[in-house]
Design a protein that fits this description.
It is a single chain. The chain has 236 residues and is mostly beta strands. The protein is 5% helix and 43% strand. The protein has one helix and 16 strands. It has a 16-stranded antiparallel β-sheet that branches. The longest helix is centred in the last third of the chain and has 12 residues. The protein is globular. It starts with a strand and ends in a 17-residue tail after the last helix. The C terminus is likely disordered.
């Protein structure tokens, strides 16, 4: 199967563990921004006239990577735990950006002795920032892929990604946590080819319009979500 294309309102998330208890290495996904992590992401974006998030940990402030006009912005928020402030210090690295061109982003956080070191590479151009504090606490929110936050009331501020993601690997100090395969997408998940069972959960799986599109793409029919008589044809 070809790479699945992000458009409309399609997005997915990585949570404390995969839905339906598939994780062989559970309780890693929810804390990936609190520990030392590396996210390798390769993508091509199409211009939809809006800001687009590749991935994000949302909160009072958002950390992640997004496109804004002709700039690719890699952002990390850190906080002084003694202040009670969730956004004492913002770090943003900007890179020139073109649509319809492949980009490889390496987004890395090293947490050592109460501070974070933020390392970013975009198509080989590297930056490093030594932060004053440690990453904000994002332990209770998912890592969104293809959106900033799909649950915002204002649709215009969700900032969906339009394009394809050919690589999305999350690693920590112990090795790969998940390696998503966007050529293997079914009605509710994106496959994890690392073998850890940490699949990404498709948040639009209850959206009838999105499901009809997924079903047609995957099984060659327009099976609706409520019709379970032919459901096996929609599974990978």
């Amino acid at each position: 199967m070809e790479l699945f294309e992000f458009n409309d309102t399609f997005c997915c998330s990585l949570w404390n563990e995969s839905k339906y208890n598939t994780s062989k290495r559970p309780n890693l996904l929810g804390t990936v921004f609190n520990d030392s992590i590396i996210i390798n992401c390769t993508f091509i974006a199409k211009n939809n006239g809006k800001k687009q998030y590749i991935f994000a940990k949302p909160g009072i402030v958002n950390s992640g990577v997004y496109i804004d006009n002709n700039k690719l912005k890699c952002v990390l928020f850190t906080a002084n735990p003694e202040s009670g402030n969730f956004s004492d210090d913002m770090h943003i690295e900007e890179f020139d950006f073109e649509y319809d061109k492949e980009y490889k982003v390496i987004y890395q956080i090293q947490n050592v002795e109460g501070i974070s070191i933020f390392l970013v590479s975009v198509n080989g151009e590297k930056r490093m920032v030594k932060c004053k504090y440690k990453t904000c606490d994002y332990a209770h929110v998912p890592l969104w892929i293809g959106v900033m936050n799909p649950f915002l009331k204002d649709t215009n501020e969700k900032y969906y990604f339009n394009g394809i993601i050919s690589e999305f690997i999350v690693s920590n100090n112990e090795g790969i946590v998940t390696n998503l395969d966007f050529t293997k997408v079914n009605r509710f998940k994106v496959w994890d080819k690392s073998g850890n069972g940490n699949f990404a959960y498709i948040e639009e799986f209850m959206n009838k319009t999105i499901q009809i599109k997924l079903n047609k793409l995957l099984a060659g029919n327009s099976l609706e979500t409520a019709d379970i008589t032919n459901i096996k044809q929609t599974l990978i």
